[in-house]
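Hello again,

I reread your note about wanting to compare the complex against the isolated chains. To keep things tidy I'm splitting this into two emails, and this first one only covers the full assembly. Below are the input lines as submitted, including protein chains and any nucleic acid or small-molecule components. They are followed by the predicted structure of everything together. The single-chain runs will come separately.
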Amino acid sequence: MNLDFTFYNPTKIHFGKNALNHLQQELSAYGKTVLLIYGKGSVKKSGLYDQITDILQKADKRVVELAGIKSNPTYAQLQEGAKLVREHHVDLILAVGGGSVIDCAKGISVSAYCKDDPWKRYWIDCEEVTNPIVPVASVLTMVGTGSEMNGGSVITNEAQMLKNGRVFGPDAYPKFSILNPVYTYTVPKYQMASGIFDTFSHLLEQYFSGQDDNTTDYVIEGILRSLIHSAEIAMQDPENYEARSNIMWCATIALNTITGVSKEQDWEVHMIEHQVGAYTDCAHGAGLAVISPAYYEYIYAYGIDKFVRFAQNVWGIPTDTMTKENAALTGIKKLKDFIEMLGLPSTLRALGVQEDMLPLIANSTIQGGGYKHMTAEDILQVLKACF
Amino acid sequence: MNLDFTFYNPTKIHFGKNALNHLQQELSAYGKTVLLIYGKGSVKKSGLYDQITDILQKADKRVVELAGIKSNPTYAQLQEGAKLVREHHVDLILAVGGGSVIDCAKGISVSAYCKDDPWKRYWIDCEEVTNPIVPVASVLTMVGTGSEMNGGSVITNEAQMLKNGRVFGPDAYPKFSILNPVYTYTVPKYQMASGIFDTFSHLLEQYFSGQDDNTTDYVIEGILRSLIHSAEIAMQDPENYEARSNIMWCATIALNTITGVSKEQDWEVHMIEHQVGAYTDCAHGAGLAVISPAYYEYIYAYGIDKFVRFAQNVWGIPTDTMTKENAALTGIKKLKDFIEMLGLPSTLRALGVQEDMLPLIANSTIQGGGYKHMTAEDILQVLKACF
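Full-complex prediction:
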């Protein structure tokens, strides 16, 4: 570990079949008014909405609601929530749903009392938050983003055709998150697979950077191996509690910053996907699944030893008798096989991208990279390779 | 992951060569009076003491000191510190040293305003802390216990010949800890090796439990592999920053509760060592190194599949062609080789234990276990096997 770092994650996680039993006690630490925010009604179908409103009532809370958060939450919805917070003097924002709902809750939380234009201030200029932050908590129903234990907030500004991710500091992390793997059983298989690959990508994007011998890489390899094993089981048997609980926890620790400590990191795959998402509204993990193999085939030569290690330690390929080139490509081939096993697409076309969008996506993507710095032209090449 | 759990760790870690630069800023969050506690003077020799008192002065703090904390901190020292806290109205206890000093700081922190006998209340009856807790922070100079990011406080009551460990809740965790691997360069090799094995043992004691497929086990395997790799480098080249930084971080995450989530855990090796330590004052990790192989040879048959997995995933032994028995024992043999590489002892005799102490140690050890419940007679057999 060569890079200095600060690690600080004050989110409390209640995990397991009985995790919701902690909600009432947790609520007692906050004031009377709760903004309950959720998506398009699946929490009502599953009965979770009734359970939670029942607990809110027992806890003597006044409840304000914001429903219908989209899978790519919009800045318009965020502004609507911020207005509710101000009008009702909300004391706690309780997000019930997946990463989209929690991301939106955090966006509302930091924006409600921002005196300037929050989009410009926080998602474009990435300024520090100095205004009051309304506490957020979550009940997670969909796995992948890790939003339940970090400061991430990806918001789509429809007017500007921009999907920007911002990572806020620990003050904006959920105060507590309730994770019951059983809630994820009702998620459609395609969404489950998309969430699994989102997690997978978070781990890869931290792993494929740096040249040092770093404990974090060993930890990531362990989580990847567990995730691969449990994903294979869950695709066959979605109600396998052991597999779904492992997947849920893998997703949380894959992006609670512990797998990023002392790592340079390379988030270019996410940067590209955000712009694909802005143009197509595709499932985030599906977008990542299309882009990742093409991206890693484009850059692997610049960090080849790490790709050899990936093949060996994550996929168990005996690389000793192979050329580095061959070993690295075999590892990426295994990644493709994994994506196929998950039933996710392998072309941008399948996500609804049209050929004339490619330069627009390439030119609007934030440039970065890890082993190789990516220019707009490099990004265009990657997009063409997976079109 | 089958067991429900709550994960909550609010300690902030500043890690790296420049970590101390954060101290002044962190101090600004606390009141005027700081109790500075440290060991037997190595922090003065290294110059760290001067650096820290300089920062305390810049931060305009009033400093009270408690020096000479023993490697097995005593209840008498704890009481002395508690008296200082009350007399001087201390606002923050700053521990500079290894696990012993931090454990003692936490003990002082929860005891200072306890109206009853804190030893009985907190280390015997393990009651919840309801009295005010004085904030603790640490600057770590010795690696192994993980005390910098948890609620552990192992205290030796010399009058009662008892060394008891207590794990306090997150309110008693250090508020922040400063981890600079360079500070560990001056630790004598034997102490370094002892700390490495303490960490190793923490990981094993969480790993060797449960029958479920659990992400935590994959994470532990990753950390063990990193620790083995870096330990081999550090034994040859103690000033290898990369190796020492990996070892330091492995120690922290090995006992910050992330490697224990949804695990039954088996802390019997620590229980036995605590009593060996109470009778001999041996280095904690050295005690664990003597007991561990004998303990695991005694119990492996009760959880044989996990021991086969240990051989394969941690030591890279191709177990497919072996009997389970042979594979499990080969893994334990690798553990013995690792201990030998670290230059740690392999017999209780070498730690200063005398034969007539064995029944006393066995009978005073708290009984527990993982794959097998350990009676006093079982413990005696283990002690005899490594005498």
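For quick reference: Chain B has two domains: 12-183, 189-385.

B.
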